[in-house]
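Agenda item 2: hypoxanthine complex prediction
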Amino acid sequence: MYQDIQEILISEEEIEAKAAELGKAIAIDYKDLNPLCVCVLKGAVPFMADLIRKCEIPLEVDFMAVSSYGNSTKSSGVVRIIKDLEASVENRHVLIIEDIIDSGLTLSYLIDLLKGRKAASVKVVTMLNKPARRTVDLKPDYCGFDIPDAFVVGYGLDYAEKYRNLPYIGVLKEEVYCS
Ligand SMILES: O=P(O)(O)OC[C@H]1O[C@H](OP(=O)(O)OP(=O)(O)O)[C@H](O)[C@@H]1O
Ligand code: HPA
Ligand SMILES: [Mg+2]
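Presented output:
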């Protein structure tokens, strides 16, 4: 697993500090709003777990599973819902938790869906943002790191379901997916 990583982009320590910083900022903005935090499975699981423990206000958590990458490093362009929310979002302040915004297709689909279900507000927190690959106009409300145009893995991010358990975020060697 480790030998497939070309370079570590963001260390475990940097991730930990950033999750704490974002959690504290969200706690200030969402004080008294009892936000519904929507974790986008599977990639956002480690980030959600770190973030909510640094966000010391009443909040609720729910999960949605969507997929558009499959076993590829490029989006299929089609966002599939694999698991829907259990909670109703009507009149709730929804905070979508993502690991990465790349093309932006997943999030623009989710934001439209949740607004259509009459959420009071819909905002986004992402650990990573890859603006160079954007195909839709979308900016996160809270963002950990802007990253260059490279396929990254670790801290929840996968290639063909592997590498999600790396504690850091690293660039995957091209030879791993170009062979
Ligand atoms: O901005 P986009 O180009 O839409 O890419 C971002 C999305 O892609 C990844 O999910 P993926 O579909 O790979 O599912 P996974 O979280 O289960 O890996 C990632 O976790 C984001 O949800
Ligand atoms: O760079 C990435 N790595 C892993 N999964 C992803 N999904 C969108 N972009 C990426
Ligand atoms: Mg994936």
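Discussion summary: The chain has one domain: 13-149.
Owner for follow-up: CH.
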